């Protein structure tokens, strides 16, 4: 009796497994309710190199890429494109933000008040990046991206900028170039508002 039960159980398992390999399995679209991810078309992806990107509350899409005719060098620059009727328009190089160095990872506040981005540097003979910030002006242009001071930037490599979904918090990482130990940090986004106020006051004083 025990032997019969064991054999019957084994047969059931085999039949169950074999069913999963029939031609009736679900497609990804049926299983997940959407098609598998595909390559984003131009003007975002090209034959060149694309890297960091950032979604915002509007229909704008920010990303980094290199090798484009409007680029400042053959390094990565920051671009913006806008979706209209489901199609992305031409990509605009955000001039003041970009330099001859590589700007390749970015985080844009959901309300597009500021962009925090990485900029390539050599530190102690090693590859590293620092975090820079640009503020959006009333006319929609962007200020020259300036390197952030401590506590955002450290003597090591400072990277992985990102905002929370509601834009209230900013997250970033710092890597010690000697130990290669990485630590993650966060600040309230209003930290950047105070920087913008300071820069605005300095500008007013300089204009006098």
Protein architecture, described:
The chain has 208 residues and is an alpha+beta fold. It has one domain: Methylamine Dehydrogenase, Chain H. 20% of the residues lie in helices and 34% in strands. The strands form 3 sheets. Strands 1, 2, 3, 4 and 5 form a 5-stranded antiparallel β-sheet that branches. It starts with a helix and ends with a helix.
Layout of secondary structure:
Elements: H1 2-19, H2 28-32, E1 50-55, E2 60-65, E3 77-84, E4 87-88, E5 92-93, E6 106-108, E7 114-123, E8 126-135, E9 146-147, E10 157-163, E11 169-175, E12 182-188, H3 190-207
Antiparallel strand pairs: 1-2, 2-3, 3-4, 3-5, 6-7, 7-8, 8-9, 10-11, 11-12
Q: What is the H-and-E element order?
A: HHEEEEEEEEEEEEH
- Average pLDDT confidence is 83
Q: Report the portion of residues in β strands.
A: 25-35%
Rg over alpha carbons: 25 Å
The CATH class turns out to be Mainly Beta
Q: Note the gap between the termini.
A: 100 Å
Low-confidence stretches: 1-22, 202-208
CATH homologous superfamily assignment: Prolyl oligopeptidase, N-terminal domain
Shape: globular
Number of DSSP helical runs:
3
Helicity level: 10-25%
How many β strands by DSSP?
12
In this structure, how is the largest beta sheet organized? 5 strands, antiparallel
């Amino acid at each position: 009796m025990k032997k019969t039960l064991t054999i019957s159980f084994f047969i059931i398992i085999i039949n169950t497994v074999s069913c999963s390999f029939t031609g009736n399995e679900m497609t990804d679209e049926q299983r997940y309710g959407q098609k598998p991810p595909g390559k984003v078309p131009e003007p975002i992806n090209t034959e060149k190199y694309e890297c960091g990107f950032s979604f915002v509350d509007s229909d704008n899409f920010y990303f980094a890429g290199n090798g484009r005719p409007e680029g400042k060098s053959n390094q990565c620059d920051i671009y913006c494109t806008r979706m209209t009727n489901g199609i992305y328009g031409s990509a605009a190089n955000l001039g003041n933000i970009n330099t001859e160095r590589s700007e390749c990872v970015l985080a844009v506040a959901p309300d597009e008040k500021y962009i925090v981005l990485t900029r390539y540097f050599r530190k102690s003979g090693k590859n590293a990046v620092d975090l820079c910030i640009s503020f959006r002006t009333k006319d929609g242009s962007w200020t020259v991206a300036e390197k952030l001071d401590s506590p955002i930037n450290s003597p090591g490599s400072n990277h992985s900028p990102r905002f929370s979904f509601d834009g209230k918090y900013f997250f970033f990482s710092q890597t010690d170039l000697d130990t290669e130990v990485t630590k993650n940090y966060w600040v309230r986004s209003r930290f950047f508002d105070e920087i913008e106020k300071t820069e605005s006051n300095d500008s007013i004083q300089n204009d006098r």
